Amino acid sequence: MTDYAIRTGLKILPQAWHDLLEIGFVYSRQGKRLEASAVTCSIVSKLKELQDFAMLGNKTPLSSLNEKKYLMLMIDKYACIYRKVENTVYIYHVTELQRDYPKLMK
């Protein structure tokens, strides 16, 4: 981090925490408990990078979200939907894009 960089706050909203738990459950149900922990920790670690690089993500596939300044950060096969408001980055959803794309459309 440089001297002139301003670190933003990070708020993972309840729906995003629920999404992370569900990702862990999917791996656990497949008998991959260690992988469940590794994947969810990896996602959270990458999300923390948004504190220093809030604009790290790209536009979402949905123009309605883009109009509201939401961004999408891809982490492996997961799409993290977030938005920076003032000095805080809010994480709204963490979803497997290929599997859950129809849910994003709602």
Radius of gyration equals 14 Å
CATH class, please? Alpha Beta
**Ends distance:** 37 Å
| Helical content band | 40-55%
Mean pLDDT: 88
The named CATH superfamily: RelE-like
Briefly note the structural class of the backbone.
alpha+beta
Instruction: Tell me the total number of β-strands.
Output: 4
Please give the CATH architecture.
Answer: 2-Layer Sandwich
**What low-confidence regions span 5 or more consecutive residues with pLDDT below 50?**
none
What's the total helix number?
4
The number of domains = 1
SSE arrangement, N to C: EHHHEEEH
Q: Summarize the main sheet.
A: 4 strands, mixed
* Percent in strands: 15-25%
Q: What is the molecular shape?
A: globular
Widest beta sheet: strand line-up: 1-4-3-2
